[in-house]
């Protein structure tokens, strides 16, 4: 069951070409995140805004973006070679929310797993907030992910994160046996879009969300399949929409194992 708000299901969701979404994101040079609260009551999602300064850029090669979270400058190396090597709006929204809600979601000394970590921005923010972080993604993304994490946390007195391969739905019990791995938080951003791995993704979320685990998932809702995935998630977990970023079409959802 979804709390906080009933999801709007439009009669027709316009499918925007992924290339157009990529072009929009590649044009972002710098990003400053801020929030304006219009929360009417404790049960309603807070309405937030991501403020972005766009600078035109056309390059097929690696480039770098500069962000500031938790008083730290974070430099992210991107590439257009893979979707996972680009900072998407959901990562900005989740990073902002974690920074602004440290009392509600205290990551200090907590075990945190990020799936689809991409460039590593969210994992880096979680590290700075004091978490024991395991950042995971596909094999082809790990080199850039490892570079971003190691270059941003060097000389910091924080828990050193781990970077691991994780293919959704594959070898979960072998690579992450539940008897040995329990995470306090499962983080995901913009992992749902128009691709064929949605069922394995849901399987992965179900596997890692044990009793006591909090899933925080931020996503830009582009396609009808995004809403369908949220409906499937909500049929399995207790879900709450914590925040919405209307200008970016991003929703931030909390999910926990449903109590019997």
How would you describe this protein?
By secondary structure, the protein is of the alpha/beta class. 28% of the residues lie in helices and 28% in strands. The protein has seven helices and 13 strands. The strands form three sheets. Strands 1, 3, 7, 8, 9, 10, 11, 12 and 13 form a nine-stranded mixed sheet that branches. Strands 2-4 form a two-stranded antiparallel ribbon. β10 (185-189), α6 and β11 (214-220) form a beta-alpha-beta unit. The protein starts with a strand and ends with a strand. The model is unreliable at 1-41 and 53-61 (pLDDT under 50).
Topology:
Elements: E1 2-3, H1 18-26, E2 28-34, E3 46-47, E4 49-54, E5 63-69, E6 72-78, H2 89-100, E7 111-114, H3 121-128, E8 132-137, H4 139-153, E9 162-165, H5 172-175, E10 185-189, H6 198-208, E11 214-220, H7 224-236, E12 237-245, E13 250-257
Parallel strand pairs: 1-12, 3-12, 7-8, 7-10, 8-9, 10-11
Antiparallel strand pairs: 2-4, 5-6, 11-13, 12-13
Helix pairs in contact: 2-3, 3-4
Q: Could you give a quick summary of the protein structure above?
A:
The chain is of the alpha/beta class and 260 residues long. Helices cover 28% and strands 28% of the residues. It is globular and about 45 Å long.
